[in-house]
């Protein structure tokens, strides 16, 4: 027992962490390996131990004694007995059942005969079982490998998949030591480590899983490094056409693959090549919304149209539900997920774990910032007020309309103008949710507006002008959340967001985290209307950044504007 420590571990699986404690950073980094952040007000942050957080830790090589040692090291009081028991129990469940191959047969094996009996008789797993071989082994339908893994995680026993992968079509490739413009190139140590953790030298224990790295930390390079290790035909899935073209550009720039061997499969083009880059949108396009799965999703055939040896899911936290279904059918392909956050807004993190794979590698954002690989970021929350008339309008509005009224507060435009003046020599992104609000900001600032309706060619043109410094202000809708490469953007002003989306906050901060050529800072401003749904949602969005070690400076708009008037 040490009352001077920063943690309190409670019997309901919550863990309280003192923010202002000298050991806060150390304790936070320890907790992030095996617990999930739930609340992050100013002084006490609340984490929770969950089965999934413990299984991810176990898949990453942590065992129960190590987790208990970390908790004991930072805890004020003894660890409650039930928590120690639950940690041992849940960590011990990962890998208690193994999926293995015996020739063409797919087997479920466990040394725990009672567990095998439970799986044999459970209604979730029964549809996939062909027969019992002995008291420790079941034969399951090899074509339903993903479905059995989903069923097992839902009954609380995630399988360790050691059944291996089909090789896929050979694709010899090398990473260049110099890019096409003669710049020296070598993946960073953590990019090599992330790829190696995923691939595991080709062992059955590797080949499926998720790498978690901040936006701007070069997740694409992790993908290229993995492709060079696997040396097989690769399908890459991304959120949008701009991201497709950025991947293609990086592949041609940093590998020896000739351009004619890289295909774009989008709404604009339908090329299939040894390396094919596509979008989630095209895969989830439905003909008439009718017919069977294959008919209603005609582009699902992309998964089987080539003998892929690797499938890369970029921004895997955005993976749409229909793509989960087809992913369950292709478990014999190696699968790499890339993301800045494992948080999903639909709560399907367990499906990412079972179908793409467990977390194989992550590194705290602040650690990469300390090493200079991403820009140092300063986060500000600026609180604006509603006028009396707006307060009355807000008070009498339907619940579903309240957030929009608060998010579109006119005072946010005034604060945005102030911040634009303050950062007149910087490259600024103004990001929001509501088009009318963004149109008004765009007109007032005389800055280009980029939305989902902007054509791909126009988007690419605006991004290129921004990169060259021909324009230094860009007003963007939700399209800016995903995979755009604007290395010199160093200021983001968020005027409204998608309700309480933690993943969106991560993406938006990520837009400005690429290291600056002058070594300068990045500034992230979130404009929030006080005492409204806007403030409540903002608190939830900030959870992700708090987890990564960022703290918001909370400022009052009135005071700010008066001081500088």
Strand residue content: 15-25%
Assigned CATH class of the largest domain = Alpha Beta
Report the total helices. Answer: 22
Strand numbers in spatial order across the main sheet? 12-13-11-14-15-10-16
Main pleated-sheet profile: 7 strands, parallel
CATH topology of the largest domain: Rossmann fold
What portion of residues is helical? 25-40%
Distance linking N and C termini:
53 Å
User: What structural class do the secondary elements suggest?
Assistant: alpha/beta
Number of strands: 23
Radius of gyration: 25 Å
The CATH homologous superfamily of the largest domain corresponds to P-loop containing nucleotide triphosphate hydrolases
**CATH architecture designation of the largest domain:** 3-Layer(aba) Sandwich
**3D shape:** globular
Please tell me the overall pLDDT.
87
Domain Helicase C-terminal: 414-565
Pfam families: ERCC3_RAD25_C (PF16203), Helicase_C_3 (PF13625), ResIII (PF04851)
Domain Helicase ATP-binding: 200-360
InterPro entries: ATP-dep_DNA_Helicase, ERCC3_RAD25_C, Helicase/UvrB_N, Helicase_ATP-bd, Helicase_C-like, P-loop_NTPase, XPB/Ssl2_N
What does this structure look like?
By secondary structure, this protein is an alpha/beta fold. The protein has four domains: 7-93, no CATH class; 98-161, Alpha-Beta Plaits, CATH 3.30.70; 189-363, P-loop containing nucleotide triphosphate hydrolases (Rossmann fold, 3-Layer(aba) Sandwich); 374-563, P-loop containing nucleotide triphosphate hydrolases (Rossmann fold, 3-Layer(aba) Sandwich), CATH 3.40.50. It contains 22 helices and 23 strands. The strands form four sheets. Strands 12-13-11-14-15-10-16 form a seven-stranded parallel beta sheet, with helices on both faces. Strands 19-20-18-21-22-17-23 form a seven-stranded parallel beta sheet, with helices on both faces. Strands 7-8-6-5-9 form a five-stranded mixed beta sheet, covered by helices on one side. Helix 2 packs across helix 4, helix 15 (388-396) runs antiparallel to helix 16 and helix 20 (502-510) packs across helix 21 (533-547). The longest helix has 15 residues, at 533-547. The radius of gyration is 25 Å and the shape is globular. The mean pLDDT is 87.
């Amino acid at each position: 027992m040490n009352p001077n420590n920063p943690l309190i571990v409670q019997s309901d699986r919550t863990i309280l962490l003192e923010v202002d404690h000298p050991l806060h950073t150390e304790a936070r980094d320890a907790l992030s390996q095996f617990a999930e952040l739930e609340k992050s007000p100013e002084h006490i942050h609340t984490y929770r131990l969950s089965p999934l957080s413990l299984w991810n830790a176990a898949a990453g090589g942590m065992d129960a004694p190590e987790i208990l040692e970390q908790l004991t090291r930072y805890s004020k009081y003894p660890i409650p007995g039930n928590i120690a028991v639950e940690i041992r129990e849940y960590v011990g469940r990962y890998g208690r059942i193994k999926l293995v191959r015996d020739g063409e047969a797919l087997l479920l094996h466990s040394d725990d005969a009672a567990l095998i009996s439970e799986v044999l008789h459970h209604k979730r797993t029964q549809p996939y079982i062909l027969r019992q071989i002995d008291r420790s082994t079941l034969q399951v339908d090899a074509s339903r490998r993903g479905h059995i893994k989903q069923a097992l995680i839902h009954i609380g026993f995630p399988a360790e998949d050691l059944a291996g992968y089909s090789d896929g079509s050979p694709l010899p490739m090398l990473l260049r030591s110099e890019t096409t413009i003669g710049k020296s190139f070598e993946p960073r140590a953590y990019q090599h480590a992330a790829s190696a953790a995923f691939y595991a030298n080709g062992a059955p224990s590797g080949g499926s899983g998720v790498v978690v790295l901040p936006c701007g930390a070069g997740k694409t390079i992790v993908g290229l490094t993995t492709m060079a290790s696997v040396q097989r035909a690769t399908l890459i899935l991304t959120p949008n056409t701009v991201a497709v073209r950025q991947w293609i550009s990086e592949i041609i720039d940093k590998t020896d693959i000739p351009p004619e061997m890289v295909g774009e499969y989008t709404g604009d083009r339908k090329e299939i090549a040894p390396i094919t880059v596509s979008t989630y949108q095209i895969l989830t396009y439905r003909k008439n919304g009718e017919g069977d799965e294959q008919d209603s999703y005609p582009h699902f055939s992309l998964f089987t149209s080539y003998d892929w040896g690797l499938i890369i899911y970029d921004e895997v936290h955005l993976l749409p539900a229909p793509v989960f279904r087809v992913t369950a059918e292709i478990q014999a392909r190696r699968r790499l997920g890339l993301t800045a956050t494992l948080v999903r807004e639909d709560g399907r993190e367990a499906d990412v774990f079972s179908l793409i794979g467990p977390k194989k590698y992550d590194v705290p954002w602040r650690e990469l910032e300390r090493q200079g690989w991403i820009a140092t970021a300063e986060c500000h929350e600026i609180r604006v007020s509603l006028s009396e008339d707006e307060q009355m309008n807000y008070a009498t509005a339907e619940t579903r309309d309240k957030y929009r009224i608060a998010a579109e507060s006119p005072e946010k435009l005034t604060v945005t103008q102030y911040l634009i003046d303050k950062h007149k020599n910087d490259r600024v992104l103004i990001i929001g949710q509501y088009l009318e609000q963004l149109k008004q900001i765009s007109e007032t600032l005389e800055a280009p507006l980029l939305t989902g309706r902007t054509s791909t060619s126009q988007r690419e043109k605006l991004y290129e002008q921004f990169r060259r410094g021909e324009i230094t202000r860009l007003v963007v809708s939700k399209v800016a959340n995903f995979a755009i490469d604007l290395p010199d953007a160093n200021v983001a002003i968020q005027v409204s967001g998608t309700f309480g989306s933690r993943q969106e906050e991560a993406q938006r901060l990520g837009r400005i985290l690429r290291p600056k050529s002058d070594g300068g800072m990045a500034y992230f401003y979130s404009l929030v209307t006080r005492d409204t749904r806007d403030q409540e949602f903002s608190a939830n969005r900030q959870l992700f950044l708090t987890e990564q070690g960022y703290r918001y400076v909370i400022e009052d708009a009135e005071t700010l504007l008066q001081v500088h008037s």
